[in-house]
Structure formats: structure tokens, C-alpha cells
Prior knowledge:
mainly alpha; 12 helices; about 0% strand; elongated
Amino acid sequence: MQSAIDQFRISIGRVRDLIALHNSLKAQSTNVLDVSDILRSALVLAVSALDYYVHEVVTLGMLEIYRGQRPEPRVTANTTQSAFDRFQVSLGTARQDRIIALDIESWLEDEVQQIKGEEFLTQPQTLSTLIPVISQTLSNKLNEENIVLLKNEIQAKLRKDSYQTPDNIASSIRLISDKDLWKEVANLIGRKTKDIKADLNAIVGRRNKIAHEADINPAFNIGDRWPIDDNLVNDAVTFIEQVVESIDQIL
């Protein structure tokens, strides 16, 4: 799942660049030029980087469970299935498997030919020779074609949800881990769980004001927005970094 944290770090680097651009422009201009919207954009992108990370790490984690490279989350006391087991996808992947099963002979012939060459099929083979070839063929199927199809199905399902608030993030992580996420994040950061959640909710709340309400403060005059500065945004970005790096360490 390294690619998920790598992409997050790149995204946060872009956010830091935006903050630096704001500070540079502000230092070279008068108060007549309002460059605060650069900071608003940086805050939105920081939360977006968190959201994207959670989507990616959950998708990759589910694929690792499917491959047998990661243990499936344990069943909780109140359920008979893990969150992973309860996750539903469309019949897209099953449809491909059904097509292969209905014409397994032709499919195996094509796959074995690609692995061993056409000459292999023209020669008599013993069962002990064929079993490893068939095993490799089926393994390739599991680790390549099915993975691509399943990844597409998982991403399509997860794309419908946003993973920004503590509750939504914890719910998604339960698909790949049974750890008490926010308790462990709080331990790593060295703060109380309720404070971690409250801070993240506040950041996401401000992000929503910017994204959905143009950051307008209705108590002020028309066009007046909630105040913002580089310290506020830097603190938010640093906090998001701490949260994501902690989640990645826990997983």
C-alpha cells in the first residue's frame, strides 16, 4: 500500500507550495490585492489529499486481502461477518469468471500456450507435468485479470462516499482492519482521541464552508468571508499529515 502514502505526500507537497505562493505574493503586494483564496484552495486540497489517501489505502488493502497477502478483519461481537465480507460489488467480476468457466478448455489452451509455447501443446504430457502449468495459469488469472476487474468494482463502490470525517474514515478502514483506529492514532500523536476527532471535524467543517458556501459569513456584510491566514492553514495541513502518517503506520 506504499503507493497510497507516496501519492498523499506528493499532494501535500503541492499544498505546501500553494501556501508558499500565497506568502510570497502577499509580501510583494498591498492589502488592496486579496490573495487569501489561495489559502482556501490549499485547505480544500489538503482535505482532498486525505480523502484520496483513504480511498486508495482501502482499495489496495482489500485487494491484498483478496490475494491472501493481508489477514481479513475479525468478526465483531455484534455481527456474523467482517466488514470485508459484507462489502458488495456488482457481478462484473463474476461475469468474467462465468464466461471462462463455460469455456474452460479453450481458455486453458490459450493461457498454457502463452506460458509454455505452442509446441508444448503438441507433445504428450503427463499429469505431473500439467498440474504445475495449470496451477500457474490459474494463479496468473487470480493475480492479474481478476485483480483489475475487482479493483474497478471496489473503486466504483467507494467513489460514492467521501472519507474525511473521523466516523467515515473509521468505517472505511474497518473494511481492511479491525484495529481501534482513532485510539491508535491518538496514541501515536500523543493526544486524546476526542481531541483528534474534534480537530479533524473542525477542519472538514471549514473545508465544507469553502467548498459549498463560498466561505461566506452570513453574519457580516455581503461578500464578507470567514477570516483565514497562513498559520491556520499550516496548522491544518500539519495535523492532516500527522493523521495520515499515523494511519499508514497503524495499517
